[in-house]
Amino acid sequence: MKIYEELQARGLIAQVTDEPEIRDLINNGNATFYIGFDPTADSLHVGHFMALCLMKRLQEAGNKPIALLGGGTGMIGDPSGRSDMRQMMTVETINHNIDCFVKQMSRFIDFSEGKAQMVNNADWLLELNYVDMLREIGSHFSVNRMLAAECYKQRYEKGLTFFEFNYMIMQAFDFYKLYNDYGCNMQFGGDDQWSNMLAGTELIRRKQGKNAYAMTITLLLNSEGNKMGKTQNGAVWLDPNKTSPFEFYQYWRNIGDADVLKCLRMLTFLPLEQIDEMDKWEGSELNRAKEILAYELTGLVHGEDEAKKAETSAKAIFTTGAAENMPSTVLTEEDLTEGQIDILTILLKGELVPSKSEARRAVTQGGVSVDGEKVTDTYKTYTKEELEGDGIVVKKGKKNFRKITME
């Protein structure tokens, strides 16, 4: 099976322009393609991970990836799929986030000479002359068509600023710049980026002629990844200091039955034949599929050793209720009141719940246990002495564990 057909079989391709040309370029290793990453945080998350997996697949098939870091577009922020405006970041924050992205991306993509490139759009966007930009690029955009774009529709009620309205033009200019200066003939992105990506393709064809090579393909990347990568306590990060390898493993181990085969196809590098066999698995066998998914993805992101540790810890928790690499929270004297702390505060401090009300609900419904014993009293407290040494192991639901200790 060739790479384009494999992407289809894995459920990655959502929409394309010029499919025959795209198939030919990708299958013959002649695509130079880019995916953009706006530095909105100091770590990549699961949504980015899906894009990185795609880049890795295509690179291994002989194609050349360009990782476009949004040092320029990050100054505005993509309004796609948002109900309000992003908080503006300082240049220092953006540059720090980019540095973090660079380190993480290098785990997945071979950036050695001729294999791939990493480019920052601040290098051209921040140097633009406003009037020249309007004359050269803005004249090719219809405001009516821009307003009809899906990426802006969710902002109509609250209002879309002119500041954000420029994002589509800037993203289109990125493709135009990469096409001219880097030989980039294709762009990839999530299905929520379709309007912005089409704008880039159309800009190149208007500027260079209708026969210009400028291809667009959207994948079930950002929207799927962002949906999957959300927990009640926030995003699932690739930085081990933000989401530990054990927590990362547990996230995938606890994924819903309906999503496990989809994730195996889209995110792992296991042969499709092996995954297709898992399609026949039912009941408890699906738990084994989830373990395979969790192990494979933890290995990709954090390395084989961390995947083994996470797997061992997860099995130890379910068999003995304890594990060496279990996520932990260390409390201080400031967290105590008169030398004690109540179960609701413990759940909140341990990031097992997003709020005190959710903590209370979990306890009253019998979903919380401490060291294997169910806790149903919302006023239950624990002393400093009980939390010292090995501390306590708090369990919420069937799959969420946290070791709580004192500093």
UniProtKB/TrEMBL annotation:
| Class of this enzyme | ligase
- What keywords are assigned to this protein? Aminoacyl-tRNA synthetase, ATP-binding, Cytoplasm, Ligase, Nucleotide-binding, Protein biosynthesis, RNA-binding
For the Tyrosine--tRNA ligase SYY-like C-terminal domain, which residue ranges apply?
323-401
Identify the residue span(s) of motif 'HIGH' region: 39-48
| Residues noted as binding ATP in the record, renumbered to the chain | K230
Quote the PROSITE patterns the UniProt record gives.
AA_TRNA_LIGASE_I, S4
**Main localization of the protein described in the UniProt heading:** cytoplasm
What's the superkingdom here?
Answer: Bacteria
HAMAP family for the chain: Tyr_tRNA_synth_type1
Q: Subunit info?
A: Homodimer.
Task: Spell out the family assignment given in the record's similarity comment.
Answer: Belongs to the class-I aminoacyl-tRNA synthetase family. TyrS type 1 subfamily.
Question: Its function?
Answer: Catalyzes the attachment of tyrosine to tRNA(Tyr) in a two-step reaction: tyrosine is first activated by ATP to form Tyr-AMP and then transferred to the acceptor end of tRNA(Tyr).
Q: By what name is this protein known?
A: Tyrosine--tRNA ligase
Say which species the protein is native to: Aequitasia blattaphilus
Q: Which gene encodes it?
A: tyrS
